Amino acid sequence: MNMYCNLLTEQDPRVSLINAKAFIKVEDSFDDLIISRLIKSCTRFGELYCGKSFREQEWVCYDLQVTSGCVVIPKSVVSSVIDVSYDNGGDTVIISPSDYKLNRSKQISSMAFTSNIETSLVNVKVRCDLPVEYQDLSDQGVLHHVAFLYENRGDTVSVGDLSAPLESISIYDKFKTVNV
Asked: What does the alpha-carbon distance between residue 180 and residue 71 come to, in Å, rounded to a whole number?
């Protein structure tokens, strides 16, 4: 079996229309729709570029491989575990929170099981969010990105297959997930 994850819920970007308009010094409501769409697309760009969610999301990951009593959660960065279960011949078995410990780092999250479990594959439902120390920084990256695209309407720097203002890239680089 192959592991796969489904996005269940996703909050709106943390950067508000009011904050973005204040940052780019727009007072009228004529361009509100454009600015709102820029906020969403710049937030998504930053998430893709950094390999991290900039807003709270809930994911369910199916068929994660348990190796040496541990499982790596492929969504970064996990802020809490909602549910852990496995299939036992058609019956769903819920694993108690007292039977695992969530290990978090800035790059990856994992779970260590504190007692033996009767399976090699588990399903994990998690809540992910950017660590607090990066939230203001990600918001600044999004604001600079929105301002640049709004003011220049297309002047960008290419980074691989992605394009963005250089100032946003330099901010995002500070907390980008490094793929090995």
From this structure: 18
